[in-house]
């Protein structure tokens, strides 16, 4: 505000509306430019911080012989423990495969044959359903296609 007061005092007694308008317009333009510059700088700073944060993610821990050997022993111990647990689970919940069932029980080999030979499971066919075959228009050409 102080600059406007000085501008007014300098132009006392003259037509000063245009002069004051120009001074205010220049000041507003400078303020807007400064605000945009600060906003741009703030955005650039945030982007640089984000890039630095991303870069820190990729750096990680440096691997030396000692740290690798320590990790390897720990990893091997975990893998051995996992194998033990998995072996115990396989023993407890082991289901026989079809082949193992047949190898253990020889009577299962003949069970399918006995089932097929039994007369209790015979299927009765109603031949009356097939007596009216004259209604079907089956040509010799169609029969040849079926044979292919």
TrEMBL record:
Stretches that traverse the bilayer: none
Annotated region described as Disordered, given as residue ranges: 127-148
Domain ZC3H15/TMA46 family C-terminal stretches: 57-128
Source organism, top-level taxon: Eukaryota
Keywords on record: Coiled coil
InterPro entries noted in UniProt: GIR2-like, ZC3H15/TMA46_C
Cited Pfam families: DFRP_C
Coiled-coil segments: 31-58
The protein's name: ZC3H15/TMA46 family C-terminal domain-containing protein
Source organism (scientific name): Pinctada imbricata
Native organism taxonomy: Eukaryota, Metazoa, Spiralia, Lophotrochozoa, Mollusca
């Amino acid at each position: 505000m102080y600059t406007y007061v000085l501008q007014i005092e300098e132009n006392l007694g003259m037509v000063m509306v245009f002069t004051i308008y120009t001074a205010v317009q220049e000041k507003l333009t400078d303020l807007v430019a400064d605000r945009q510059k600060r906003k741009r700088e703030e955005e650039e700073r945030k982007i640089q911080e984000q890039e630095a944060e991303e870069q820190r993610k990729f750096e990680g821990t440096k691997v030396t012989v000692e740290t690798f050997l320590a990790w390897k022993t720990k990893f091997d111990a975990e893998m051995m423990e996992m194998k033990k647990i998995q072996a115990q689970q396989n023993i407890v919940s082991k289901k026989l495969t079809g082949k193992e069932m047949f190898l253990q029980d020889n009577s299962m080999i003949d069970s399918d044959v006995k089932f097929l030979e039994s007369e209790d499971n015979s299927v009765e066919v109603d031949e009356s359903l097939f007596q009216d075959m004259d209604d079907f228009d089956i040509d010799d050409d169609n029969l040849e296609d079926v044979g292919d």
